[in-house]
Amino acid sequence: AELAAKAAAMTEVRASKEAKLAELAQLKAKPTVGKKVPVPMADGGTSQEDLGKFWSCIRPHFGPEPSRATTTLSDGDKKALLQIAWVQEEAAGMTEARASKEAK
Q1: Measured distance CA(34)–CA(57) in Å, rounded
Q2: pLDDT at residue number 76
Q3: What whole-number distance in Å separates Cα of residue 104 and Cα of residue 99?
Q4: Distance (Å, rounded) from C-alpha 1 to C-alpha 96?
Q5: How deeply is 71 buried, as exposed, middle or buried, from its count of CB atoms within 10 A (0-12, 13-18, 19+)?
Q6: Which residues are CB-neighbours of 14 under 8 A, at least 6 positions away?
Q7: Strands 36-40 and 46-50
């Protein structure tokens, strides 16, 4: 029964990457890891998603080592996110951190 419960959890309908990106674009500040928020799905329902965890998967795209990102982003997605103030701050912070690390 435990295995069946795990299988059911794995097949749980989740919001698409596009829906999560759209939801990130609505935020006024960086999302918190561990805090789930409702994200609309294509079927009209909502899915509880941890946008903080999602952000941590795509965040490397905005720093000096984009190859470390675990979720792929198109150039269009990346450009759209770079229009958001908190994403710009994160990207600038990663670049500054890298520069100060290399200066030592």
Answers
A1: 13
A2: 95
A3: 9
A4: 51
A5: middle
A6: 41, 47, 49
A7: antiparallel
